[in-house]
Every structure is written in structure tokens, then in C-alpha cells.
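Protein fold
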Amino acid sequence: MLEFIINYYVQILLTLSVTLVSRYFRHIKKTFNTILEDNKLIKANVLSISRLYIIQNGEILLCKDKISQDELQDFTDLYIPYQAMGGNGTGKTMYHAIQTKYISDLRD
């Protein structure tokens, strides 16, 4: 009789333990998915802001007759992370246009 009671309570405790652990992991998964979605939104916003600055700075640089090495480096420092995050062709086109226009001037 005592064995039956012990086995019965052990089964109940194991069932409760598994249920609690399962719910905890479900909560962790839900939190993790929420964080992933937030990160995707943040990345999209950073890309949008970077694209805006690349276009603005690129247009300003292309309107100038000459640019300094520092200006080119600043633009490059803005472009490289943008491209690494999956930026579109607009930034690449602007970057190559600036390099094509000014790279020979900076070598002289």
C-alpha cells in the first residue's frame, strides 16, 4: 500500500515538474522570438537612416569640385557597415560614383 502511494505521488510530482519546465521553456521561446522581431525592426530602421545619410552626404560630396581624404574616409566609414547589414544598390551606386570622381584627385 505504501509503495502504491509513493509511486502515485512520484508520478504526480514528475508530471507537475515536466509541465512547469515545459511552460518555462515556452515562455523563454516567446520572449526570444519577441527579441528577434524587435532586432529585425531596429535593423530596418538603422538601414533606412544610414541610406538617408549616404544619399545626403553623397549628393553633397558629388556637388563639390574636390573633397579631402577625411571626407572620403567618413563616407566610406558610413557606407561599409550599411553594406554589411544588407543595404540596397543605392548606397553602392553612390559610393562608386564618389570613388570614381575623386579617387584620381586624391592620388595626386
The longest helix spans residues 2-63.
